[in-house]
Design brief:
86 residues, alpha+beta, four-stranded antiparallel sheet, 3 helices
């Protein structure tokens, strides 16, 4: 079982075709994914049964690392561990 405190410390590198690369906290990545999902005209079939963009984003964060926004246009995210200072 994973330590919930450790999970809160996770960060993600997010890659956007236009925005480039950024490092976000897990909460920021979840919100970023939810925002991306809300721009889609058609939600991927495996996410469609979930009622909210936040629940869909959580499923994506747990099961994938890429989302196609349009043909040939995708965003990606990868978990990274940042070392504490000192």
């Amino acid at each position: 079982m994973s330590d919930p405190l450790l999970r809160e410390l996770d960060h993600y590198v997010v890659l956007e075709p236009v925005g480039g690369e950024r490092i976000l906290t897990a909460a920021e990545t979840l919100a970023w994914l939810a925002d991306q999902l809300e721009t889609l005209e058609v939600v991927p079939a495996d996410l469609a049964p979930l009622p909210t963009a936040m629940e869909r984003a959580q499923r994506l964060l747990e099961t994938a690392c890429e989302l196609e926004l349009a043909p040939g246009l995708a965003i990606q995210w990868f978990a990274v561990r940042l070392e504490p200072p000192g």
